[in-house]
TrEMBL record:
Lineage: Bacteria, Pseudomonadati, Pseudomonadota, Betaproteobacteria, Burkholderiales
Protein name per the record: Exodeoxyribonuclease III
Domain Endonuclease/exonuclease/phosphatase per the UniProt entry, residue ranges: 4-246
Pfam families xref list: Exo_endo_phos
Listed EC numbers: 3.1.11.2
MF GO annotations: double-stranded DNA 3'-5' DNA exonuclease activity
Superkingdom field: Bacteria
DNA sequence: ATGGCGGTTTTAAACCGA
């Protein structure tokens, strides 16, 4: 079983790349963020033709999430029932006995922005809802764009980023709170090369200079952690023409 | 300090992302 997450920064623009990537990486489950599509514009037929079922929750211009799966999905939940939110940032589904939560955690913009307390409240509500979900689903995977680099080794230049949004202590504390509820960062289960990131700024040759952050994650409960045999960032599509600024993250689960 | 880039919309300039 292979599962993946990818912030595509507009599925309208990136659909050909998603289909190409799935041909080369026929994962069982793919969580997408920033589809930026209303549900009536979602490319269901193209994704079905690629062999995937799909559930989605979108809106105009911003946000939007989807789960693509080779296996049937049930118990779909859109957004956090404990957190009324006009922004479409969560979709959850049960697939083959595993609960998948696909999340596009708010960016926060800056510590001074009103979007920053929104991000922290959003994370707090996510934690509360996940406690309920975990009580029902011992096998749970939380995949998505967390917009949090958990540690300094997930940041290309920790000194330059110190205290900024995406690395600030309250955000990292929220990440650790997710870990404390039994969710493990699958990437850190394994020995990894240094300077592995999942997002690079489009500007100033960010990707070529590897000025990145690791902000896309796959967190797993104990039972899934024990089945996890690999977790990698796939930089290949970041090198394609007109790429998303994020790269996919893939975890492998033994049967 | 600002703007870089790329996507979006109200198809031009403004917004948002990270």
């Amino acid at each position: 079983m292979k599962i993946a997450t990818w912030n595509v920064n507009s599925l309208k623009v990136r659909l050909p790349q998603v289909l190409k990537w799935l041909e080369e990486n026929p994962v069982d489950v793919l969580c997408l963020q920033e589809t930026k599509l209303t549900d009536d514009k979602f490319p269901v037929a193209e994704i079905a033709a690629a062999g995937y079922m799909v559930e989605f929750s979108g809106q105009k211009t911003y946000n939007g999430v989807a789960i693509l799966s080779r296996h049937p999905m049930s118990d779909i939940v859109k957004n956090n029932p404990l957190f009324p939110d006009e922004q479409q940032r969560i979709i959850a589904a049960t697939i083959e006995g595993v609960r998948y939560v696909c999340a596009y955690i708010p960016n926060g913009q800056s510590l001074e922005s009103e979007k920053y307390p929104y991000k922290l409240s959003w994370l707090s509500a996510l934690h509360a809802w996940l406690q309920q979900e975990l009580a029902q689903h011992p096998r749970l995977a939380l995949l998505g764009d967390y917009n949090i680099a958990p540690e300094d080794r997930d940041v290309h230049d920790p000194a330059a980023w110190q205290g900024q949004v995406l690395v600030s202590e309250p955000e990292r504390e929220a990440f650790r709170k997710l870990q404390a509820m039994g969710l493990t960062d699958s990437f850190r289960l394994f020995e990894q090369p240094e300077k592995i990131y999942s997002w690079w700024d489009y500007r100033q040759m960010g990707f070529r200079l590897n000025r990145g952050l690791r902000i896309d994650h796959i967190l797993l409960t104990q039972e899934l952690k024990e089945r996890c045999t690999a977790c990698v960032v796939d930089k290949v599509p970041r090198k394609w023409e007109q790429p998303s600024d994020h790269a996919p993250v893939i975890a492998t689960l033994a049967d």
